[in-house]
């Protein structure tokens, strides 16, 4: 079998890496072929369920997924896609989004999911650096869907996407970035190994709830579990009620969620009466988890069913731990996971001793296998292959990692360094606080003052700023306590529950 292969546009791959990847591609099974094999093995098995905002659902069997992915692959080629082409997918979670992604892998193209609701100027900046062969968005979606319906569903010629996918960054701290993995879309079997198998065996196939948007890494990566034979239950849009309904109806076995999602689930009035018995495990990622919320999930499930993971889209490496480990090392995000090495460096490059704060550097087998489109510099690297995303933290004597925050988010106030995540974690436990974001605002006395933006649980009767500040004083060093407090009806978060700190600072005068 001959598989088409291309390294076009991947400037971060040296000759040795290119030769190694090419050899893998020539002997491996493409993602498209893997889907075909899964469909042959279990044609009537449900591979995908997409749950609409109104609760209606669409089910697709593995044979339907394979056939329609072939149709979408051909439609993309007709629209201009080639092996190695970037294909922008700027539509919400939907059957079309999944099929278009699978169609990219069938055609050997590179899917780049993108937020569909970006302001025009930001969308245009990203499109300028991606230079996609095809853009699937609100304007082209209907035409592309009709084109796909008119295509043959027979198997396509095998092709390998030179990159599994790209992920867009909004560029909130500088140039817009598109992070492209340099791993080719070759099925190795490792892509479908459940996180929990690091600790215990996991019965498969799994039924995986996808509560967040596929334009985020945690959402898009679940498509590789679909290829492994697991069933995906994708929410068109996250809501706590919708997620709980899906868990019960489809007997969901696992999911990945952000702390904000988990807080909204835990705050549901009937959460203690809901049936979570099918859930074998869940992963928390994307942000630090407040201890009170974490302990609440230990009650809803058990410590052994809760996994916390720390990583980044650039795939520099991973740290992870299970809830029972966290109880022995409270506040940690884990130890090196799947051959990841972790070390802490001082600004002068020397290694920090146990317990001393410094820059977090990671090294893993896949470290460095990424590039940025758009001209952004790669993340700093040491001569021996360790890389940092700019996060700050320390290691304890047992090798467990603790994160303070991103250095880029650090607030320098009166000459002292304050990490927003620490202040947010302290304020989140206040019984009248539903959500909080801490930012640094210009101040004539302090340079930057610590400012807390709070979404109260009861918008009609928020706590006073004095109450919030007094609460913070009981939990934080004086220089970390917010000097000003602001109440809003809702914290502006994306569908992935992320917040744009730079934008919040800008609208408040910088």
TrEMBL record:
Domain AMP-dependent synthetase/ligase intervals: 55-365
Organism placement in taxonomy: Bacteria, Bacillati, Actinomycetota, Actinomycetes, Mycobacteriales
Record's keyword terms, sorted: Ligase
Pfam families cross-referenced by the UniProt entry: AMP-binding, AMP-binding_C
Domain AMP-binding enzyme C-terminal as annotated: residue spans: 422-497
Protein name: Acyl-CoA synthetase (AMP-forming)/AMP-acid ligase II
SUPFAM superfamilies: Acetyl-CoA synthetase-like
GO molecular function, one term: CoA-ligase activity
Statement: the UniProt record of this protein carries the keyword Zinc-finger: no
Source organism (scientific name): Mycobacterium numidiamassiliense
PANTHER family, per the entry: BLR3536 PROTEIN (PTHR24096:SF323), LONG-CHAIN-FATTY-ACID--COA LIGASE (PTHR24096)
